[in-house]
Specification:
single chain; about 120 residues; mainly alpha; 6 helices; 3 strands
Length: about 120
Protein backbone atom coordinates (compact mmCIF):
# COMPACT_ATOMS: atom_id res chain seq x y z
CA UNK A 1 0.00 0.00 0.00
CA UNK A 2 1.43 3.37 -0.97
CA UNK A 3 0.31 6.20 1.29
CA UNK A 4 0.99 9.68 0.03
CA UNK A 5 -0.43 11.68 2.91
CA UNK A 6 1.82 11.86 5.94
CA UNK A 7 0.46 11.53 9.45
CA UNK A 8 0.66 14.50 11.78
CA UNK A 9 2.10 13.99 15.28
CA UNK A 10 -1.40 13.71 16.86
CA UNK A 11 -2.41 11.25 14.13
CA UNK A 12 0.67 9.13 14.77
CA UNK A 13 -0.13 9.09 18.50
CA UNK A 14 -3.68 7.87 17.83
CA UNK A 15 -2.48 5.39 15.20
CA UNK A 16 -0.01 3.91 17.70
CA UNK A 17 -2.97 3.30 20.01
CA UNK A 18 -5.07 1.71 17.28
CA UNK A 19 -2.18 -0.60 16.38
CA UNK A 20 -1.78 -1.47 20.05
CA UNK A 21 -5.45 -2.31 20.68
CA UNK A 22 -6.07 -3.78 17.22
CA UNK A 23 -9.55 -2.33 16.98
CA UNK A 24 -11.74 -0.26 19.24
CA UNK A 25 -14.40 2.33 19.75
CA UNK A 26 -13.57 5.97 20.43
CA UNK A 27 -13.82 5.37 24.19
CA UNK A 28 -11.29 2.52 23.92
CA UNK A 29 -8.90 4.86 22.12
CA UNK A 30 -9.51 7.63 24.68
CA UNK A 31 -8.73 5.28 27.55
CA UNK A 32 -5.25 4.63 26.12
CA UNK A 33 -4.30 8.31 25.73
CA UNK A 34 -2.08 9.54 28.56
CA UNK A 35 -3.04 12.53 30.69
CA UNK A 36 -3.71 15.29 29.96
CA UNK A 37 -6.22 13.84 27.52
CA UNK A 38 -7.46 15.94 24.61
CA UNK A 39 -11.21 16.53 24.33
CA UNK A 40 -13.24 13.57 23.01
CA UNK A 41 -14.29 15.51 19.88
CA UNK A 42 -10.67 16.37 19.10
CA UNK A 43 -9.70 12.70 19.30
CA UNK A 44 -12.63 11.74 17.09
CA UNK A 45 -11.58 14.37 14.54
CA UNK A 46 -8.07 12.90 14.46
CA UNK A 47 -9.50 9.41 13.90
CA UNK A 48 -11.71 10.73 11.08
CA UNK A 49 -8.63 12.35 9.47
CA UNK A 50 -6.82 9.02 9.66
CA UNK A 51 -9.81 7.46 7.94
CA UNK A 52 -9.76 10.07 5.15
CA UNK A 53 -6.05 9.45 4.63
CA UNK A 54 -6.63 5.70 4.32
CA UNK A 55 -4.93 4.55 7.51
CA UNK A 56 -8.07 3.55 9.43
CA UNK A 57 -11.40 1.92 8.60
CA UNK A 58 -14.51 1.39 10.68
CA UNK A 59 -17.50 -0.86 11.23
CA UNK A 60 -20.73 0.69 12.45
CA UNK A 61 -22.64 -0.78 15.38
CA UNK A 62 -25.81 1.26 15.91
CA UNK A 63 -24.55 4.79 16.46
CA UNK A 64 -21.01 3.77 17.35
CA UNK A 65 -18.07 3.04 15.09
CA UNK A 66 -15.39 0.49 15.83
CA UNK A 67 -12.10 1.59 14.26
CA UNK A 68 -9.33 -0.67 12.97
CA UNK A 69 -6.04 -0.16 11.10
CA UNK A 70 -5.96 -0.53 7.32
CA UNK A 71 -2.16 -0.65 7.32
CA UNK A 72 0.09 -2.56 9.71
CA UNK A 73 2.66 -0.83 11.85
CA UNK A 74 5.36 -2.71 9.93
CA UNK A 75 4.06 -1.50 6.55
CA UNK A 76 3.91 2.07 7.80
CA UNK A 77 7.41 1.82 9.28
CA UNK A 78 8.82 0.71 5.94
CA UNK A 79 7.02 3.52 4.11
CA UNK A 80 8.19 6.10 6.65
CA UNK A 81 11.77 4.86 6.63
CA UNK A 82 11.82 4.90 2.84
CA UNK A 83 10.58 8.49 2.87
CA UNK A 84 13.27 9.49 5.39
CA UNK A 85 16.02 7.86 3.32
CA UNK A 86 14.79 9.58 0.13
CA UNK A 87 14.17 13.01 1.63
CA UNK A 88 17.05 13.35 4.09
CA UNK A 89 19.79 11.01 2.86
CA UNK A 90 19.50 11.36 -0.94
CA UNK A 91 18.18 7.81 -1.17
CA UNK A 92 21.38 6.41 0.32
CA UNK A 93 20.97 3.77 3.01
CA UNK A 94 24.73 3.87 3.78
CA UNK A 95 24.40 7.62 4.45
CA UNK A 96 21.53 6.91 6.87
CA UNK A 97 23.55 4.25 8.70
CA UNK A 98 26.60 6.52 8.76
CA UNK A 99 24.58 9.39 10.26
CA UNK A 100 23.09 7.06 12.85
CA UNK A 101 26.48 5.57 13.70
CA UNK A 102 27.99 9.04 14.15
CA UNK A 103 25.45 9.87 16.86
CA UNK A 104 25.40 6.49 18.64
CA UNK A 105 28.00 4.17 20.05
CA UNK A 106 27.54 1.01 18.02
CA UNK A 107 29.03 -2.11 19.56
CA UNK A 108 30.88 -4.79 17.64
CA UNK A 109 27.95 -7.10 18.32
CA UNK A 110 25.51 -4.62 16.72
CA UNK A 111 27.81 -4.22 13.70
CA UNK A 112 27.83 -7.99 13.30
CA UNK A 113 24.03 -8.04 13.55
CA UNK A 114 23.87 -5.45 10.72
CA UNK A 115 26.20 -7.58 8.61
CA UNK A 116 24.10 -10.69 9.31
CA UNK A 117 20.91 -8.85 8.31
CA UNK A 118 22.51 -7.68 5.07
CA UNK A 119 23.63 -11.22 4.23
CA UNK A 120 20.17 -12.57 5.03
CA UNK A 121 18.55 -9.93 2.79
CA UNK A 122 20.91 -10.83 -0.07
CA UNK A 123 19.77 -14.45 0.13
CA UNK A 124 16.06 -13.56 0.08
Amino acid sequence: MRLNQKMTAPEEEIMQIIWKIGQGFANDIMSEIPEPKPPYNTTLSVVKNLEKKGYVGHETFGKANRYYPLISKEEYSKTLLGRVVRNYFNGSLPDLVSAFAADHDISDKELQEFADLIEKAKKS
